[in-house]
Specification:
By secondary structure, the chain is mainly alpha-helical. 77% of the residues lie in helices and 0% in strands. The protein is built from 18 helices and no strands.
Length: 459
């Protein structure tokens, strides 16, 4: 529900603009208000889960998200919609930030944890892929309000299920990590970093963007200094000492910059070059969603148990690189069956990449730190995705000479080559940085450890 909401809005934006009289700036903030709140609060929300109890934070986030969805659906003015979208992002951050932490503590046995992470990746892939399809269907069949109102029954069912199924956990208490200054620094720095990235579509990469980026880096640097000196830090720096943890976050930053920009660029290619409408574009992306879902739910866990997370990660990245290389040759008069379907099927490699990255990114998380490690992992995911879309869109625009279909295709080709380069960097980093985790049997040579939740378990 929460991942889907990041993309479902895009298809309905023209209807919102007509219904509410939104200007171009207001229309941008319908999307960016959610993204900034969501991406900026993930790390703080993850730590709150450690301190106050993950189930409590999870259910609170669902409640905030659901209520904000109702306000969005009932909005009759641009200001009400944008404000409610920001609150939606807050609820989404509270819920998403602690989800991986709960998996870490609930599943202590490696095989069960790997299956849980694969299911987690499956839901994320389905949510991200179906957003545009569902947004188009609801907007055309009913109206744009229903892309938000559909969250009410889903949120209610989720909250009730969480209270009935998830064990209650107390958390370590605010006294164990109530670093107010650190919280202010990381939240302000993360929000400013996400804002800096998303505003490049309107303002470009000039002096304004560089100044904002420098401010974000200064705030985040201040946060790191604060964590190194605080008696009870919000994010103990020990969580980043593990080579697999910081390596997986770095690789995710690079890889998701390529993968999320791929989704956007391919959609633009379909609509601007092949002249697909919004519904046709969403349906054309479905084979990728199905491939990712099948691989993540039925294949990834078995392969990770057998060959290890690092090996499966590299395999998935190779498949995705092959898909991106196919994209660099898509023609102006491309056909779905011959030019797009093969790369959609190869995109099933994402179903191998995310469970592997998630397991590695959460490795070494102690029970008391699982929430903040989850928050870090989710934060790098959001920043990587936003940065990739902004950067590759700028690359495509800079290499497009005119509005013709031929010129647009040329610009997209260059962006696809850049994406392929990012995936290549991800493969190199995976082989150079990630370490094989020893286990009791050769078959589990670099699988996730089975000892305790403290050693390991968003995708």
């Amino acid at each position: 529900m929460i991942i889907l909401d990041g993309s479902i809005v895009t298809v309905a934006l023209p209807a919102m603009q007509r219904g509410l009289g939104l200007g171009d700036a207001g229309l941008t903030w319908v999307v960016n208000g959610y993204v900034i709140a969501f991406g900026g609060l993930l790390l703080l929300a993850g730590r709150l889960g450690d301190l106050l109890g993950r189930r409590a934070v999870f259910v609170t986030g669902i409640a905030v998200f659901t209520i904000a969805s109702a306000v969005c659906g009932a909005a009759t003015t641009p200001a009400a919609l944008i404000a409610a979208r920001f609150v939606q992002g807050v609820g989404g951050a509270l819920t998403s930030a602690v989800a991986l932490g709960m998996i870490t503590t609930l599943f202590s046995e490696a095989a069960a944890r790997t299956r849980a992470l694969s299911a987690f990746a499956f839901t994320g892939a389905v949510g991200a892929s179906l957003g545009q399809v569902l947004g188009g269907v609801l907007t055309d069949a009913l109206n744009w309000h229903w892309i938000f109102l559909i969250n009410l029954p889903l949120g209610l069912v989720t909250a009730v299920a969480a209270l009935r199924c998830l064990p209650s956990d107390r958390g370590v208490g605010l006294a164990a990590g109530a670093d107010v200054l650190g919280g202010l620094l990381v939240t302000a720095g993360s929000m400013l970093a996400v804002y800096t990235i998303v505003q490049t579509e309107q303002h470009g990469w000039g002096a304004r963007t560089l100044a904002l980026g420098a401010g974000a880096l200064a705030l985040l640097a201040g946060f790191v200094v604060r964590q190194a000196t605080a008696a009870v830090p919000l994010m103990p720096l020990r969580v980043l000492r593990d080579r697999n943890v910081w390596g997986a976050n770095l690789i995710q930053l690079v890889v998701l910059a390529a993968l999320f920009s791929f989704q956007v660029m391919v959609a633009l290619y379909m609509q601007n070059v092949l002249r697909y409408n919004a519904s046709e574009t969403g349906l054309a992306m479905l084979p990728a969603a199905v491939a990712i879902a099948v691989v993540s739910l039925f294949v990834a866990a078995r392969l990770i148990d057998r060959f290890g997370a690092r090996t499966v990660l590299v395999t998935g990245l190779v498949l995705l690189l092959a898909a991106r290389l196919l994209l660099t040759r898509v023609p102006v008069d491309g056909h779905f069956a011959t030019d797009l379907l093969p790369l959609m099927l190869l995109s099933g490699g994402f179903g191998l990449v995310m469970p592997s990255l998630t397991g590695l990114g959460m490795s070494g998380a102690k029970p008391e730190d699982a929430g903040v490690v989850s928050g870090v992992f989710n934060t790098t995911q959001q920043i990587g995705a936003a940065l990739g879309v902004a950067a590759l869109a700028a690359v495509a625009a800079a290499n497009t000479d005119g509005p013709s279909r031929e010129a647009l295709t040329q610009g997209y080709h260059v962006a696809f080559w850049v994406g392929a380069g990012l995936l290549t960097a991800g493969i190199v980093l995976s082989l150079a940085v990630l370490r094989r985790i020893p286990s009791a049997s050769p078959a589990d040579a670099d699988a996730t450890p089975t000892a305790a939740p403290a050693q390991l378990p968003s995708a």
